[in-house]
Structures are given as C-alpha cells and as structure tokens.
Amino acid sequence: MHELLLFASVSSHQHHELLQQLTGLTAMQPRHSLERRLIFKATRKPGLANTRGGASQGADIVRLNKMLNGQMFYTQVVGPVSEADFDGKSSSSESQDASMSGTDEVAGSSYDYDSQPWKLEFRDIPEAGIRSTITARLAASAALPKGDVVPSMNAWGYSFVTEYVVEGDVFIHNDIVIFLHRVLQYSVHPGQEPHEPRRQLPSFRELSPLERTGSYILQAAITVQDGGNQELMRTASQHLFGLREQLKSAVRLEHADRLSLDTRAK
Amino acid sequence: MSESFSVSLRPKIEKRDRPDSLPRDIAQINAQWGSFRELNEATLRQKIEADKHKDPWEEEDEGDKESADLETSERLDQLYKRRAEIIQFALQAHMEASFALDFVSLLMSKHQPRQAETSMSPFLKSAAPLGSLNAEVVNPPPRPDSTLKDIKSVSRGWRLQNFNSAASKLLNAGSRLETEVNSETKYWNEVLAVKEKGWKVCRLPREGQALGVQYGFLEATPLFRDRGLAALRRTDDGSLFLDKGLIPLKAQGVRVRMKHGDRIVGCSKVCRPPQDAESIESRILQARDTVFEEELFYEIMREARILGSQGVTTRQNLVQIPLSEEQEVLLDLVDRDQDRDPEAAVSSERDVFADSIAHSIRILLTYAHRQNLRRRTQPPPPLAPKRRPIPEYQILRPIMAYLQHKSHIQWLESLMNDLRGVLKSAGIACDFRSTQFDSIGTLQPNSLVSKVEALARVFLAPIQSTFSATLVTPGSSFRVRIRTNPAVPPFGTFYDISVNLPQYPDVQPPSHVGLQEEVSAILTHVVMLDIAASVPLQGHGASEQQSKDRLSWEVAYAHHGELLALGQNGQSKKMKISLSRDELTIHTIALGRNGGMGPVDATSSTMSQTWKAGLAESKPTLSEFVAQASQP
Question: Is the backbone of residue A32 left (phi > 0), alpha (psi -120 to 50) or beta?
C-alpha cells in the first residue's frame, strides 16, 4: 500500500475558519479524533544477523539476509481514545504519579488500558526524487491485540521509545482523507520519562502542544492499493493536486521535506 | 437642427476616385492625338516600335553637345554658382517654413498646447512660454443687424434644443434607474425570502455572476445530485424565476397502483397539492420533489432489474411486482396533475394500502441517502483499479419481503385457526400463540445510529415471526418460526419447525421448509400424532374399577394414526384417527378374537365420528367418544 501526502501549516487563529471551510468543501461535519501514539524502535537481536556462510547462498538465504540485515525502522502504535478517557477528576499530582509509576490504578478513572485497541502503523521514508511535488511513501498498518502491547512488540524486536497524543479533525473528500491535527505532549519532568506506555491518562488540560504557538498541521492523504501501478499513482496525485487548487486561497498544500519524515532507525 | 445632435457610427461610404474612367479616357485621347479618328491599332503599334528604337539618352546627348561649346572652367564656375544658389533658396525656404510653423504653433499653443508643442522647434520652446501669443479679430467689419439677430436667435434656439435633449436624457436615465432599482430591490427581496425560508443560496459554479438555490439531495446519485441546483434569475420586471436548465418543467411523481386481476383497485394519492403554484417557494419545492421522485423511480428501476428472478418485470416506464397469483403492484412515474388513474375503482382500503407502499419507498430512499452519507464520511479504502460499484438501494426488496412475510403469516394463522376450530369442536383444548414480526419489536437503542435510521434498519433485516402451540399430551408442543430475508440469499420465506413430542422423541421434521403444503402436512401430522398419543392417556383419570372394565388403547402405527386395544377377554378393537385442516375423523373397528383382520360384526361394532370446525351441533367430545369406544 502506498500513501500520497500533501501538508500545510495552519496557524491557530486560522484554525477555526479553515474548519468551516473544510466542512463546506467536504459537506460533512468534522469528525473529532484523539489518538495515543506510541513510538517503538526496532532493535537488532544479537546473533541473528550472522547467517552468512558457505558457498550455498540460495535465493532464499539472500532474501533472509536482506530481511535480517536491512534497515531498521521506527514504527508507531496508534490507539484511538476519547476525551472522556482523559480523566479530569483525578488531581494532577495523582495522575502524574500514576503515569510515572505506570502501574498504579487510580480510582475514579474511566480509562481502561487493558481494553485499549491498538493499530500498528509502519511508514517508510518517502520516495526520493521521482515525484518531487508530492510526498509518496510505502505504508502498512495492522491491527494489534487489545491492552498491553509492549510484550508482543518486544517479542517482535521493538522497544518502546516514547508516546504522544494527536488531536484533530478528520474530513473525507472523495478518496482523500484530510486530517487537521496537532501533536500534544504529556508534561514530563526531565529525566523522569516513563519506559512504558501510560496506563493512566492525565487531564486533557495538562497536555501541551508540541508547537508552542498552537498551530495545526493540515495533512491530505490518499492511499493507493498498489504503488507499482503508475496509472493509479497518477490518478491519486491528480486528486491531491485538485484539492490543492481548491484550497489554494485558504492554505498552501505542499510536499514535506523527505528527510523530516525519515523513519529509519540509526 | 430640429433633431438632436447625433453621431453616426456607421462607416462613411467612400466615393470612388474615378467615377467613370471612360469620359476621361476620351478626353485624354483627344488631347494626345487630336482626334479620335487618328487613333487605331496600326498607329499605336508604329508608335510603340518607334519608342523602342529611340535612344532614351538622345535628348541629353543633344544638351551635352550644346554645352560642349562652353569652356570647362566657366562651366564649373557656373555649376558651383548655380548649386550655391539652389542651396540658398532651399535654406531660405526651409527657414521661412520653420518660422511659419513656429509662429502658427505658438499661436495654436494658446488653445491646444499639447498638440502645438509637438510641432514647435526646441529653440522656440525654450525662448517663449506656451500660449504666450494670442490672436484676436480686431475691428471686425460691422455686421448688419438682421444677421446679428439671426445669429442670436439661431444660437438661442440651438442652446434651448440642447438643454431640452439633455433634460429628457437625464429624465430617461432617471426613470430607467428607478425601475432598475425597483426590480433589483424586488429581486433581492425575493432572494432573501428564499434564503430566510432556509434554502441554501449560493453562487453558480460555472456562472460566477448568477445566484443559484440548492434544493437537491447531497447524497443522491451524482446524476440527480447535480440537478438539485437551479439558477435564480431575474426577469425584466424584477420578479424571480427558477431556471432549471434542461429539466422538464412538469412536476412528476411515482404512482403506486394495486392491480387485482385485470382491474386497478387502488391508487396512491399525490403527496401534496400545490396550494400556491406561482410562488417561488412552491416552485422550488416542486422542483425538489420532482428531482426526488425521478431519482426514486430511477433507483426502483435499477433495483427491479436485479429482481427479475423474483418475478419483477420492468417496462419502459413501469415496474410490476407480483404479490400473489392475482395481485400485482404497479409503480410508474407520472405527471403530478394526472396521478389519478381514471380506470381505478374506488376502494379506500386498497388506496390506503397503495399509499402506505408509496410512503415506504420514499422512506427507504431517504434511508439510502443517509447510508450514503455514512459511507461517504468513512475513511475510504485504498485506491484500487476496480472501483466499488454502487449497490442497488433496498427499496423494493424490504417491501416485497414484508408483504410476502405477511401473506405467509396470514396463511399460517388461518391454518392454525382451522386446526384450533376442529380440535375445539372435538373438545380438545390446545393453546396456540403467535408473535408476529417479533424481529421488529426488538429495537435496541444504539448510540452510533440515530433513532430514525435504527427504525428503518429494522425493516431491512430479516423479518421473523413465531407461532407456537402446546398440545394435549403434557409436555408436547411445537414451534414454527417464519423467516423472510429481503437482501441476502436465500431469498424468500422459510419455515423453521421445531417439535417437542415426549412420546415420540425421534420425530423431528426437516428444519428448513419452504412450501406451504409441506408445512401444512407437517403440522397436521404432528397434531394427529399428539392426538393419537393422547388417546391411551384418556382413561388414566378414571378409577381402578372403571379402568378394569375398559379396553386400554395402545398406539400401534402412530404415523398412520392407528391404535389397538386388547380386552381382557381377547376381544380387540382398532382405532384410526385421521386429521386434516377441515375435519377430524375417528373410526373404530372391532376385530376378531384371534386378532384377525376380518370384522366379526361390522354393523354393530364399527363406530365413526367426524368433527368439523364451527358446527354448533352437540356432538360427543373426543374423550367421550373414546370412552364409548372403550367399552368392551
């Protein structure tokens, strides 16, 4: 599956107006979306990489080697949450404590970590060069079991790095998914970052936007089943360019810097 | 000067330079040749020949010969002198011309400075400021009074006339502006009124200057969605009119008719009679209704084509749905004003039925619109070479399923009632219960789906009704579940029969029955089995002494309804029970002592009794009859 993308930066005072414009354009009400995103990093297990040996390097061995010694990537695990999950009742210190220790159960919280659905999202680094006016990258996603994902992710060779929250509104315009969102961070004292996903969510007000000015990102994405099909890729980019034209007077959609979307783990 | 001053915008027709060349040619010939008679072809040819041979420099040579006499130095002197003379004359002429030009330019610069400036010499420009020279008529010769008077009156008249025409032009412009303003005001008021009614007024996408009103349905098929926009145009007097483009002006609607045999027995009514056909509001409403109705019929047609296997037929403008052998529902798109079929017989009940179908199809189309909105606002699947086809809306299928289900329920209910009547007349108490459309009753509140949608969704799910009965023998019962599936194969109605007969634990009918005859046969058989099983139990309530005297019945061939009774003295009797929808019959035959088949005394020992439903005759009940038959 391939993903074609265009981005635009939206300042916070333009946000409301743009929401209304998008509502009119897509003829639908915005669908508010809140997502927890956990970042995992692939780690190479020692001892697996050295399968080189002998003259009998068949095609399978080559492929296996390629898989084992290939690039390592960061992946995201995405779980939808609702605003009610961010418990406003528990005091900040309590929730912080809970998030720090990661295991305490605070009474009165409605968030149930064990029934949180998750989805694994893999995004490759955007393709270089060919389509310089649009960001295209390989994308794949898969559903994960509910609840604690860390053990299974660890078993697959991924280790937890950090997590953040994405808040935004989704619009659908024909085949294009328009996501007007911003990244929110948990308030964490330096040096006390938790080493596993929070079991307890803090109050929503305690989250602070990553971008201090509170500006939003407009992302227009279209997914293509088969990235090798040039015809389809062209159609998809034309759809995106059509949207860019339509939104020209409001925002300027453009492709992102390739290296800023680099998901390779160094 | 009586007319107002006007400038012709047509190009001036140019006169020809040479109106007619022939007179000029003749004059030329006369001058050149003396007389016309001298001129003929021969002389002309001679002349041409002569010109050819003549040396073009002959004359010059002659001049050279003359001047050759003069001395060379003299000639040079003379040449220079002449040349200087010529140059001097030319310079003088040029100077005078420039002076004249400068003078005139300076004079002109008083009145037309820009134009005069271009022809001034740079020196003059720097020396004298523009417009510094003026010319006036000094001491004009006195004119006669009459001329002065004439001029005066002419100029006054001229001026008056100009004033008049200017005034009338201004007045015209004023009145024109006034009407324009009035009509614009009227137009905008009407547009505002339309907007205040809640219609969406917008700019036309392809025609930026025009306003349009959107009355169509956003979720309709693109073909009809795009038609839901009409321009709001202004007529000359400012009133609004709805420009729908190429759409037929007539209001149309889907009509539902019921056909019984060859006669039309019911017809649906038009939804809303247009009370004020002229107002813009009603015209918009009418346009909206027409778009909706046309879409409805389009979708019905589309669906009807895939329902050919279920007997639905389509004509050019007609969809026929068979309900039963004789009944049919006809759907067609007709003009609003002729929606009543003149042939239709007046039957209010059928009209109501047709009306309810008409309402249902509209509700189902609106539901389909909502589903489209739902689908449209979901994240789309990845782009693939094959586009998803738009599935046919479920409009006819739920209605057909409902009607089909209903007719099956009615049939089963009448079967049950008949059986109950037969059994009742035989004094057998059975309990029949029915829960019709029990799938519809279970409307669960769902936060994801709005109530209206949930309500309509129920009718798209498989419809189910349950009939159950407890029979005579304790613990025995049966249950019939009727299911009709409108959308997913297998289509049609199926009966799920489950039987609980403690006496015959191995009796189980096939679970999936489609034919009514089979269902009827199964149910009567089950009831018959139950009656047969109940006969041996009849005597249980009696005292020991009594039961000793009586024959005790044994079920011999249950599926044939046959029982046997062996008396203590070796006497035996046979009982045969037969049950149909209409009657219950029991025969008893006394058999020989040895159990042989031949009846000993047919006349005295054969008993027979038939019970029919609804007959009010006083007959012995089944238990009485059994008791009687049990007498040895």
Answer: beta
| Ranges of each domain in chain A | 2-261
CB contact under 8 A, B384 and A225: yes
Q: Give ∠ CA B610-B616-B622 in degrees, rounded to 5.
A: 40
A223 contacts in chain B (CB < 8 Å): 382-383
DSSP assigned state of B12: P
Strand B607-612 versus strand B431-435 pairing type? unpaired
Instruction: Give residue A102's region: left, alpha or beta (phi > 0; psi -120 to 50).
Output: left
Q: Which comes out higher in pLDDT, residue B293 or B445?
A: B293
Q: Are A86 and A51 contacting, i.e. CB atoms less than 8 angstroms apart?
A: no
For residue B399, give the nearest of B443, B435, B355 by alpha carbon. Answer: B355
CATH homologous superfamily of A2-261: Hypothetical Protein Pfu-838710-001 (2.40.320.10)
Tens digit of each residue's pLDDT (9 = 90 or more) over A89-106? 544 444 444 444 444 444
Q: How many Cβ atoms sit within 10 Å of the Cβ of residue A193?
A: 12
Q: pTM, whole model, 2 decimals?
A: 0.70
3-state helix, strand and coil shares in percent for chain B, rounded to the nearest 5: 45, 20, 35
By CB atoms closer than 10 A (0-12, 13-18, 19+), residue A83 is: exposed
Name the pLDDT band for B109 (thresholds 50, 70, 90).
confident
Alpha carbons A209 and A83: distance in angstroms, whole number? 16
- Distance from C-alpha of A251 to C-alpha of A246, rounded to nearest angstrom: 9
Supply the DSSP symbol for A105: P
d(CA B463, CA B435): 12
Burial class (CB in 10 A: 0-12, 13-18, 19+), A144: middle
For residue B599, which of B626, B572, B578 has the smallest C-alpha distance?
B572
**Nearest 5 degrees, angle CA B434-CA B437-CA B443?**
125
Contact A163, A144 (CB under 8 A): no
**Which chain B positions have a beta carbon within 8 Å of A235's beta carbon?**
383
CA distance A227 to chain B (A): 10
